[in-house]
Amino acid sequence: MAELTIDAVVFDVLGTLVDEPAGLRAGIGALTPSPALDAPGTERLLLLWQRHIEREQRRVVDGDRPYLPSDALDREAAEVVARAAGAEDPGAVATPETVESLARAARRLPPWPDTVAGLARLAGRFPLIGLSNASRTALLELNAHAGLRWHQALSAEDARTYKPDPAVYRLAVTVAGLPPERLLMVAAHAWDLRGAQALGLRTAYVARPVGDPPTPSDRFDLYAEDLADLAGQLGVS
């Protein structure tokens, strides 16, 4: 590992450290008073949510829409999903209260089995920085619910844009007070790592079932099966 000298590790949160789809599925399931919404129906609604968030965040990054924090986009997605659930299942409840509850499901996401122990192991060697598209408030609840421990947690809200805008990665560089190449960005999303790489950060892809796998043309510094594998590659016992 002599060629990879780093002084701090920056982690994506959603999908990388917490199972976002699992938490959203639980919220979607609570919309219906009976098991009328089958698994394929739940997956259709989950995809609807994900596409809305991805599209609207991209519009913010591209300057086609003023910045809104993730809480507001989650509320929009919850309304879209609640309406669609009502169309699929007449028994689905789409009151303002249930929409708000569904929106908050985006903050109640379970950690992956290796997350808590992996962060603790790495924190014994490196300063750890969380860098998330989640708003400050959402990130606080996410961290508390999943038991995530940081030396610093940063929200894209501070840059008033979303990853992969360079301004978001710059937050971590500024807080760390280090050259970008001394920071290692860890994510389960190749698009996220490309954004960090463009600003000069070193990169580590961690495989997750819900991530965005690298393409053959991607050249990241490390490829890990999980956080234990990542720690081993970084020489952390």
Descriptive report:
β4 (183-187), α8 and β5 (202-206) form a beta-alpha-beta unit. Helices cover 46% and strands 11% of the residues. The chain is built from nine helices and six strands. It is of the alpha/beta class and 237 residues long. α2 (39-61) packs antiparallel against α3 and α3 crosses α4 (96-104). The chain starts with 7 loop residues before the first strand and ends with a helix. The protein has helices at residues 20-29, 39-61, 70-88, 96-104, 115-123, 136-146, 166-176, 190-198, 227-233; strands at 8-11, 128-132, 152-155, 183-187, 202-206, 222-224. A six-stranded parallel beta sheet has the order 3-2-1-4-5-6, sandwiched between helices. The chain is globular.
Outline, from the CA principal axes?
globular
Uncertain spans: none
Helix content: 40-55%
- Count of helix runs: 9
Give a quick precis of the structure.
With 237 residues, the chain is an alpha/beta fold.
Task: Give the SSE map.
Elements: E1 8-11, H1 20-29, H2 39-61, H3 70-88, H4 96-104, H5 115-123, E2 128-132, H6 136-146, E3 152-155, H7 166-176, E4 183-187, H8 190-198, E5 202-206, E6 222-224, H9 227-233
Parallel strand pairs: 1-2, 1-4, 2-3, 4-5, 5-6
Can you give keywords for this protein?
six-stranded parallel beta sheet, 6 strands, 46% helix, 9 helices, alpha/beta
